[in-house]
Amino acid sequence: MGRSPSPRIRMQLRSSSMSNEASHSVDDQAFVEISNVTHYYGDVRALRDVSLGVARGEFLSLLGPSGSGKTTLLRILAGIELPRAGAVRIRGRDVTLLPPEARGIGVVFQNYALFPHMSVSANIGYPLQVRRLPKAQIRTRVDELLDLVDLTGYGPRRPSELSGGQQQRVALARALAFHPELLLLDEPFGALDRRLREQLGLAVRLLQRELGVTTIFVTHDQDEAFTMSTRIAVMHEGELMQIAEPTTIYRTPSDIHSARTIGTLNEFQGTVISEPGERVSIRITDGSVHRDTRTHPAELRRGASVSCAVRPEHVRVSHERMGESDFTSTVLAAIEGGGWRRFQVKTAQGLVLMSTASGRSSAVYDGDDAYVGFADNTLMMFDAESGSRLI
Ligand SMILES: Nc1ncnc2c1ncn2[C@@H]1O[C@H](COP(=O)(O)OP(=O)(O)O)[C@@H](O)[C@H]1O
Ligand SMILES: [Mg+2]
């Protein structure tokens, strides 16, 4: 999908989205509202008390490991699955009990097969045919959609005569056929190679902006989610952990699972050895003590087990001692990038840490002995059991 829609299509798209806007007076913050949704398959709990709101025009990504409930949440939104408890509202209207076709939602599921015996045009026009639109109108709309996904002229072909990426674009065109207000994409490019996925991802994002269609996109690819989303919802074992802008999740994760979901993370375990009011001190499992300048908060219990985490850009490697909690270490690998350096170091006690630094820093090389420390107050601490953020 190398080019943007023709001026003709743009006009039509814009006017149709404008008419949509005129007919809705509902608060943008609650265009889609999922309230306290819980779902089971037999005895298996797939979702637990999930609540979240999606604003009109937003591109929300659901990110989380396999089995965390992403597909189930989309199926409930689409109306394919009835939740055990909770409600789904679209534009303020409770749709929890409505069948899929009454919801005005376009859906592209992972490996969602096209009808193999039908032409590309017939596939794209299928939702319109089901809605009994006049033939001439269907033909016009199908041509618009082929143009939109950059497949002009491919209408007469069979799906088997298209590449995987082209087939997914046909599926996308079909999902957009009846001007849905909400588009649900469940790992739509999961089966494609990385380069094609990036290309299609970008195309979808541009198209989504052009159409202004509110989109919920399921992926387990953090880079994809990071670059495409207005916000990311992190799912873990059927629960919503955090929903926020990508950089917020990266910088201020609410829990260890959200922290792990985006970016590289150094992790180790420790025990709190300070008292409330003192400076925070942690005895790391390797025996060393980390002390920083933050004050031990009242809710942190002395003796509590904590999961500690620090981003690579906050790990400093140097021949000079930088702070009282520095580790002595050996540089396992120093990797030169353009304008940055990356180090893998191993502390004397056996902790392996990743560090990234901007180009000018650290004349430290493979095999060197060096000090390793964390920039001031950058060590995140999470409850070892619940994973929730402590400090
Ligand atoms: N049809 C099903 N029958 C039984 N269990 C299911 C079914 N679909 C999903 N599950 C279970 O529900 C949980 C959530 O699955 P799913 O929503 O598919 O997660 P994700 O899309 O994040 O990989 C998992 O434990 C999964 O095994
Ligand atoms: Mg899934």
Descriptive notes:
The protein is of the alpha+beta class and 391 residues long. The protein folds into two domains: 7-260, P-loop containing nucleotide triphosphate hydrolases (Rossmann fold), CATH 3.40.50.300; 265-383, Nucleic acid-binding proteins (OB fold (Dihydrolipoamide Acetyltransferase, E2P), Beta Barrel). Helix content is 26%, strand content 32%. It contains nine helices and 20 strands. It has helices at residues 7-23, 70-78, 120-130, 135-148, 164-176, 194-211, 222-228, 246-251, 256-261; strands spanning 32-41, 44-54, 59-63, 85-90, 93-94, 105-108, 182-186, 214-219, 231-236, 239-244, 266-272, 279-284, 289-295, 305-310, 315-318, 327-336, 340-347, 352-358, 369-374, 380-383. The strands form four sheets. The protein has a six-stranded mixed sheet, with helices on both faces. A five-stranded antiparallel sheet has the order 13-12-11-14-20, with no helix packed on it. The protein has a five-stranded antiparallel sheet with strand order 15-19-16-17-18, with no helix packed on it. Strand 16 and strand 17 form a beta hairpin. It is elongated. It starts with 6 loop residues before the first helix and ends in an 8-residue tail after the last strand. The model is unreliable at 1-28 (pLDDT under 50). The protein binds adenosine-5'-diphosphate and magnesium ion. Magnesium ion (MG) is lined by residues 70-71.
